[in-house]
Automatic annotation (TrEMBL):
GO terms for biological process: microtubule-based movement. PROSITE patterns: CH, KINESIN_MOTOR_2. It comes from Helianthus annuus (Common sunflower). Belongs to the TRAFAC class myosin-kinesin ATPase superfamily. Kinesin family. KIN-14 subfamily. Keywords: ATP-binding, Isomerase, Motor protein, Nucleotide-binding. The keyword rRNA-binding does not apply. The keyword Isomerase applies. This is Minus-end-directed kinesin ATPase. SMART domains: CH (SM00033), KISc (SM00129).
Amino acid sequence: MALSFSVANVMEDVLQQHDNRSRELDLDSRRAEEAATRRYEATVWIRKMIGVVGARDLPAEPSEEEFRLALRSGQVLCYVINKVEPGAVTKVVEGPCDSASVPDGAALSIYQCFENVRNFLVAVEQMGLPTFEASDLEQGGKSSRIVNCVLALKSFHEWKQTGANGVWKFGGNVKPVAPSKNFIRKNSEPFKNSLSRNISMNETSMNAQLVETENSKMPNSSLNMLVRAVLMDKKPDEVPVLVESVLSKVMEEFENRIANQFELKNTSAKDAPTGNKTFLKPTSDEIKVEDKKRAVVKKNQNFHENSIPDEEKKRRQQKYQMLFDIQEKDIKDLKQTLSVIKSGMQFMQMKFHDEIQNFGMHVHGLANAASGYHRVLEENRKLYNQVQDLKGNIRVYCRVRPGKLNLQSVVDNIEEGTITINTPAKYGKGCRSFNFNKVFGPSATQAEVFADTRPLIRSVLDGYNVCIFAYGQTGSGKTHTMTGPKDLTEDSQGVNYRALSDLFFLAEQRKDTFEYNVSVQMIEIYDEQVRDLLATEGLNKRYPFLFATVYKFK
Ligand SMILES: Nc1ncnc2c1ncn2[C@@H]1O[C@H](COP(=O)(O)OP(=O)(O)OP(=O)(O)O)[C@@H](O)[C@H]1O
């Protein structure tokens, strides 16, 4: 909570109390005259700035009440300040709070009026001009402060119009437009001391107080008039005593008011956390004080920023230097790392190049090996088929069918490649032997019979023509050997099934190297006629070929 009264006010009040009896009438008349002159001056300027229409509620020579009512809505003030400093008040609430239409201000419009006034006061304060209290616009308020503010604004405007050279001066007092840094006057030591005694005041509130004090300086104001009036009829030797008396009263009053303010502050601080405080609408004075406090805090921040001690600057400089050194070191490290990475990359590139070369050589070797493998395979194939040739291009095997029970077999003896048969008496009793590539006895299995023909199947895939056929009288077992019995099992499969099975098995093994197309024909030679067993048309039943296998390299 900031202090909401000024030294000038206190002095004014004290002086008013002092010697009030003797000079009351005369003083009032002088003050009224002085105030009226200033008010008219302010009015003329306002009407000039915003025009007679804009200031329609403000007569050329308004009474104190008329002046207050005309400005109460804050609209006129906002228009004026926006003329002086465009955009100083960004939003001006218009209409309902117009004092003319709502003379006493309805509950709703009071708040809107206050918004205008508050915005105006904030803008004025930011410009460094003397302000007034929002309550000064209410009945019983001090219109002299409003007039003073308007005249200050006028002075500021004139200063701007003349080119804003040097510093802006108002009423003979030098006042920088920029945010103030030191508001303590040289001749205000007693007040300083007095304020120092109130050690509970923080710097912000102290500055608020001093800003208020400064803003209230007005040589031509009623304060000076009062002082002059008090001292006018005194003898010179009475003046020091009188001044001392007035000053001591001012001190006393001032301290009392500060004490009251802090008491109020403490009371509201206690009330706040208890939750007893209801949601009351803040009074215009409270809001004004809060706004002012914020503005002063902001000014203080700027002030502190501009007045950083040398030690702090040195400390910051050292800190920046340290950060700079660290960053410099980091950059060096990074450069070093970059160099290491670069050489690493070069090494990797060389290694990669070598490995690619090695890999190429390996691939080359593999290609050679593959080519050698194919050569060897080819040689192997040739050798293999040469072996088959050596075994004989035509091989004849004999298989003896198991005999029927109670019938004597004609077979006398079976050896590896020879079968001996008992010859009937009519052909001359005795034995006759026949030679074959191999003779299979009655107990020979299907697998044993196929084992001797198996190598020929591989020759088929190597491009050789192979023919396997069975020859014999009716019922001798040709179908049994080539196909198998009616109830076919894996073990009883004959040569055809086994040969085809091997054919597809080898084709699958060689699929990466060769692609084989396999086709099948079924023919029979019966009664010296070759017939196509798969032919559907009668004319094509006679066919001269047994198997045809096509192969090609991939
Ligand atoms: N090695 C064998 N083991 C067991 N049974 C056999 C054998 N050889 C042939 N047979 C049987 O003998 C019978 C006649 O055989 P198969 O039909 O194979 O003779 P085939 O020579 O084909 O006769 P066809 O010329 O009249 O067709 C069949 O019942 C068959 O099962």
